[in-house]
Amino acid sequence: MKCQANRKPSPTENRELRTANCEPLTAMRLAIYPGSFDPITYGHLDVIHRACRLFDELIVAVALNDQKHTSCLFTIDERIAILQEACEGVAKVRIAKLNGLLVSFARSCGAKAIVRGLRAVSDFEFEFQMALMNRKMEPDIETIFLMPKEEYTYLSSRIVKEIARLGGNVEAFVPPCAVKALAKKLSEKA
Amino acid sequence: MKCQANRKPSPTENRELRTANCEPLTAMRLAIYPGSFDPITYGHLDVIHRACRLFDELIVAVALNDQKHTSCLFTIDERIAILQEACEGVAKVRIAKLNGLLVSFARSCGAKAIVRGLRAVSDFEFEFQMALMNRKMEPDIETIFLMPKEEYTYLSSRIVKEIARLGGNVEAFVPPCAVKALAKKLSEKA
Amino acid sequence: MKCQANRKPSPTENRELRTANCEPLTAMRLAIYPGSFDPITYGHLDVIHRACRLFDELIVAVALNDQKHTSCLFTIDERIAILQEACEGVAKVRIAKLNGLLVSFARSCGAKAIVRGLRAVSDFEFEFQMALMNRKMEPDIETIFLMPKEEYTYLSSRIVKEIARLGGNVEAFVPPCAVKALAKKLSEKA
Amino acid sequence: MKCQANRKPSPTENRELRTANCEPLTAMRLAIYPGSFDPITYGHLDVIHRACRLFDELIVAVALNDQKHTSCLFTIDERIAILQEACEGVAKVRIAKLNGLLVSFARSCGAKAIVRGLRAVSDFEFEFQMALMNRKMEPDIETIFLMPKEEYTYLSSRIVKEIARLGGNVEAFVPPCAVKALAKKLSEKA
Amino acid sequence: MKCQANRKPSPTENRELRTANCEPLTAMRLAIYPGSFDPITYGHLDVIHRACRLFDELIVAVALNDQKHTSCLFTIDERIAILQEACEGVAKVRIAKLNGLLVSFARSCGAKAIVRGLRAVSDFEFEFQMALMNRKMEPDIETIFLMPKEEYTYLSSRIVKEIARLGGNVEAFVPPCAVKALAKKLSEKA
Amino acid sequence: MKCQANRKPSPTENRELRTANCEPLTAMRLAIYPGSFDPITYGHLDVIHRACRLFDELIVAVALNDQKHTSCLFTIDERIAILQEACEGVAKVRIAKLNGLLVSFARSCGAKAIVRGLRAVSDFEFEFQMALMNRKMEPDIETIFLMPKEEYTYLSSRIVKEIARLGGNVEAFVPPCAVKALAKKLSEKA
User: What is the predicted pLDDT for the residue at A182?
Assistant: First the structure.
C-alpha cells in the first residue's frame, strides 16, 4: 500500500515540509523515564529501549523514594549503580537522581515528555492519576505510555524481590547485575 | 531543581551527544493517528494537538471501516472533509485514507510510531490487543498512548451520534463543522 | 417532550402527590430509572426497590431503543406491559416511554436524579461515559449509582434471552411475567 | 454510639429540623459521607455539594483511622478543623467524628444512605467490597455512588500530600485552608 | 523444600488417602471447552493443551452461534474441520457440536468442569457472568479458568479475521490449517 | 441434549479411552491452595470445597508471610489451627506450612496445579502476575482459577479484621472458630 495524503498540500506547506526534512527542526527531543528501579527489571529495560527509538535522549530518573514504594530494598546509589551497568550498551541514556517533584525536574532538563510503561489495569489507573496531576502542574510536558513486550506485562520489581527473598531464581526477570545485587543484599540481610 | 546527570559521560559519549544536537540526527519523525473519525470529536482533536508537539509530522489515517465501527454514519469522504476542516489551523497534520492494514500503511509512510488516545479501561484492553498484534506484524513501529484532556476522557463518536440522533446539542463535544455535518446527515436520514 | 405517566394515578396518589408538591422541605424528590428492560430482570427489580427507598417517586423510563441494544426482542409496548406487571406491588413507581434524550425527559419531569445500577467493570465505564455526557447537557440532574444485590451483579437481559432461546430455565433470573413473555415470544419466533 | 454533630446547629436550623421530622412524606433524608479526609480535596467538596442536592442533611463522618490510610498526616481534630473551614458556606452539612463501625454510626444517626464518590476502577472494586459488607451488616442503609466532576476523577489526598511534600503547588487540588495546613504541617515535619 | 502436612492424619484418614492412591478413585474426569472457534487460534490451542494436563478427556464444544459472535465467518462444519486438523496430535481431545445450552450439554456428557481461557479484563467480566449463570442452572459443574501463554493474552479470532481480511499475515496467530481456510474463505468472498 | 462426539474415534482411540476408564490413569491429582488465611473466610472455604470436587487431594498451604499481607494478625500456628477446625469435615484436605517459594513447594509435593479464587478485578491482575511468574519458574504446574460463590466475591480477610476491630459482627463472613479467634485476639490487643 502506498501512503497517500488526501489533502493536496499548498505550496507553502510543501516548502515547510521540505524545510522540516533538512533542518534541525525542533531542538533535540529529550524524555524522562522516572521510577524507583528497585531494582531495574527486563520490563524497565524494554521500555528504555523503546523510548530510545522515539527520542534523542532519555534520562532515567531514579526517585529517592516515591509514593508507591515507601521503603526501597536498595539505596538510591545502589539502584543507580545497577541501572548504569544494565544500560551500559544503550546509547542516548543518562541516569539521574530525582529528589523533588518530577515535573520540576523535567522542566529544568528541558524535557518534552515523561515516558511510562503500562503493564496492567491497576497500573493504568495509577499512571493516569499521576499523569493528570503532572499535566495540571506542567501542561507543556506530555506523558506518553509505552507498552512493554507482552512477556514483561506482569513483571514488577516488587514480585522479583519477593521471589529472590524466598530463594527463587530471578534470572529470567532482571539483568545479571541486578541478580548479583539481589543475592548480595539478601545475604547481608539474612 | 537542576537536572543533574549522575553518570559522567565519557568523551565518546560527549561527542555523540554534541553531534546529536547539531545534525539532522534521525530522519524527520512521522507518526500515524488512525481511526474511523465518524465524526471527529474534541477528544480526537486534543490527541492530534498533543501528538503534534511530539512529532514532526502527523498523518491522521481514516479507516475505510474498522473492526469496532462496522457501519459508519458518514462516508469516508465525508469523514475526511470534516477532519480537514477541523484540522485547518493545525500545522504538521495531513489526512489520509487508510484502506488496508495499518502497519503496512505505516511502513509505506516511513512512520516511526502509531499514536492512540487512551480513554478508559475497556479502551485500554482493546488498544493493547491492537498494539500487540501490530507489533507482532511490524516490530519496528512503536504504538504510543496519549492521554486526552480529562474532560474528553469519556467522549466517543458513538455517543455523540446517539445524542445528535435524539435531538441533543453536541456543540460541547465536536467541532462546528461536525455539528453541521451531523445535523445535515440526520435530517437527510429522517 | 412531556413526561407521560403510563399508569393512571389513583385518587389517593393524586392527593399525596399534590401534598408533596406544595409542602415544605424540598419539593418531592423524583428520580428516573432509564433502560431498555428487554425484559426486566430481578436485577432491575432490585434496583427499583432500592431507589424507592431513597426517592418519593421513581419513573422507570423505557427507551424506544438505545445505543447498547440496537434491536430489542420485545416491542416497547410489550416491555412496558411486562414491567407494569412486575412492578405491580411496588408503590411510588410509574412506567413511562422514553423516546428522546434522557436528560430532556428528566428535565420535563422535574427529576432531580437519574438512577443506574452498577454491575461490573465494563458497565462502570459505559455508565460513567453516559453520566458525564448527561451532566454536560443538564448539570442540575445528578446520576446516582446503586449496587444491586450481589447475586444479581452479573445478571443481564441479554444473557437471559440467550438462555431462554437455548431452552434454559430463566425463572431464577426474571419475574414470572417475563418468563411467560419470553416463552411466548420465542415460540412465535420458532 | 451516639451521633455527634460537630457544628452547633443555629436556632433556625433547629426549627427546620423539627419541622422536617414531624411533617409528612418521608422523614428528613439524612446521608453520611464517610472518609479520612486527610486532608479534604476539591474532589471531596464536589461530592459534598452533589450529595447536598439529593439529601436534606449530610453528615461528613471523619474516620479516626481507616483500612486504607493506616497513618494519617493530620490528627483527626486537624482534619475536622480543615473540613469545617472548607464547608463553611455549604448548608445542610455537619461534620462528625467516626470512631466505630460506619453502619452502627449511620444507624444511630438515622441515616438512610451512605454516600461515596467513585473515582476510578480500583476505587470501584474497593467501594463495592465495603458497600456489600456494610449491606450485610445493615440491610436498610443504602450505599449510593456519585461521580465527581471529571477533572477530579483522578484526585486523591494521598497524591496531594506527596506533591506538597516534594514542594509542589497544590492550590488546584485542595481548598485554601488545606493548602495552608499542608504547608504548616510539612514545615513542622522538616 | 519438603512437602510437610501439618496436621497428623487420623488412622481413618490415612486409610482413605491410601485408598485414593490405588483405586479408580473418581470416574474419569471430563471437561468441556466451549467456544465458537471462528477459527481456532494458537491461544485456544494453548488452553486445550493446558486443560489436557488436568483432565482425562476434553470435549471441545463448537457453538452453533453464541451471544458474542452473532455471525461467524465459517460454517460450523468448517470450524469443526479446522479444529480437528489443528488438534490432530492432541490426545484426549474430542470435538463436538454444541447446539443447545452449554450446561445441558455438559450434564449429558457427564462433565465435571467447563474450561475457559482468561485473556483480559473485559473477558474476565463476561466470563464471570457466563460462569455464574451456568452455575445457577447447574451447580454441580464447575467453571475453571486457565491462563493462556502471555503472548496469546491479547489474541482473538475476531482480530485475526480482521487482519486476514486486510491482507495481513496471520501465521503467527493461527495454525496452518486455519491460515489456509481463511485465505480460501476470503478469496471466495472477494 | 445428547453428548455427541463429532469425530468418529479411531479404533486406537477407542482402546485408549477405554483404558482410561478402567485404569489408575494418571497418578492421583494433587493441587495446592496457597494463601495467608489470616483468618480463613467463608470465601476461602467455598474455594476449598470447589477444588476438592476437581482434585483427589488439596493441600491448603499457609504462607509464613506473603507479599500482600506484610503483617498478619494471627501467628502462622494460630492460622493453621483455625483452618484445621474450619476444614474438619472436608475430606481430601491437608493443611501445610509454606515457608519458601510456592512453586518449589508444589514441585516437592508432586502437585499438578495451584488453585486460586478470583474475586474482582484488582485481584485478577495480581493473580495473573503471580501465576505468570510461577509458570516462568515451573512451567509444568498449572494455575487454575475458581470463582467463589457470588456472595463471597467481595469478601476478604482484611476487611473482616477491620470490621471485627471496630466491634462489628463477622459471623456472616468467617466460620465460628475464626469468629472466636478474632474476638480473643482483639481482646488481648485492646
Answer: 98
How many beta-carbon contacts under 8 Å exist across D and F? 42
| Residue A101 near residue D167 (C-beta atoms within 8 A) | yes
pLDDT at B173: 95
Is-catalytic flag, A165?
no
Query: Which positions in chain C touch D54 (Cβ < 8 Å)?
Result: 29, 54, 112-113, 142, 144
Pick from F66, F137, F136: nearest CA to F97: F66
Contact D101, F167 (CB under 8 A): yes
Tell me if D144 sits within 8 A of F170, measured CB to CB: no
Q: Do C159 and E133 touch (CB under 8 A)?
A: yes
Q: Which of D46, D54, D57, D149 to mutate to test the interface with C (most CBs of C within 10 A)?
A: D54
pLDDT digits (tens, 9 = 90+) for F143-182: 999 999 988 878 889 889 999 999 999 999 999 999 999 9
> Which listed residue (E15, E68, E94, E184) is catalytic?
E68
pLDDT tens sequence across C83-100: 999 999 888 999 999 988
Question: Is E79 one of the catalytic residues?
Answer: no
User: Residues in chain B with pLDDT < 50?
Assistant: 1-25, 67-69
Which set of grid coordinates corresponds to residue F112?
499438578
For residue range B19-33, list pLDDT tens digits in order.
333 333 455 789 999
Minimum CA–CA partner of A154 in chain E: E150
What is the enclosing helix (H) or strand (E) of D81? helix D76-86
**Of the partner residues F7, F62, F146, the one whose CB lies closest to the CB of residue E95:** F7
Per residue in C30-45, is it b (16+ CB within 10 Å) or e — as a string? bbbbbbbbbbbbbbbb
Buried b (16+ CB within 10 A) or exposed e, E161-184: bbbbbbebebeebbbebbbebbee
Check if the beta carbon of residue C48 is closer than 8 Å to that of residue C175: no
Per-residue pLDDT reduced to its tens digit, C52-61: 999 999 999 9
Residues in chain C closer than 8 A to D29 (CB atoms)? 29, 54
Chain-chain contact of B67 with E167 (C-beta, under 8 angstroms): no
For the cut 90, the answer to whether the pLDDT of residue C127 exceeds it is: no
* Alpha-carbon gap, residue E107 to A50, rounded angstroms: 51
Whether residue E41 contacts residue E156, with contact meaning beta carbons closer than 8 Å, is answered with yes
Enumerate residues 6+ apart whose C-beta is below 8 A from D144: C54, C144, C145, C146, D31, D54, D113, D114, D115, D116
**Residues F146, F115 contacting (CB under 8 angstroms):** yes
E-state strands within D46-141 = 57-63, 93-98, 113-117
Amino acid residing at F75: T
C53 to chain D: which residues are within 8 Å by CB?
A: 112, 142
CA distance C185 to chain B (A): 28
- pLDDT given for residue B11 in this prediction: 41
3-state secondary structure of A136: helix
Annotation says B69 is catalytic:
no
- Quick one: cell of B67? 473492526
Indicate which residue of E79, E116, E119, E185 is catalytic.
E119
ipTM: 0.82
CA C91 to chain centre: 14
d(CA E151, CA E154): 7
E107 closest CA partner among E75, E134, E76 = E134
Q: Which residues neighbour C149 within 8 Å (Cβ) at sequence distance 6 or greater?
A: C43, C46
Chain F residue numbers touching E2 (CB-CB < 8 A): 108
Domains of chain A: 27-189 (3.40.50.620)
One digit per residue, pLDDT tens: chain A, 190 residues?
444 444 444 444 333 333 333 333 455 789 999 999 999 999 999 999 999 999 999 999 999 865 444 579 999 999 999 999 999 988 899 999 998 899 999 999 999 899 999 876 566 677 878 888 899 899 999 999 999 998 887 888 988 999 999 999 999 999 999 999 999 999 998 7
**Residue of E44, E116, E161, E185 marked active site:** E44
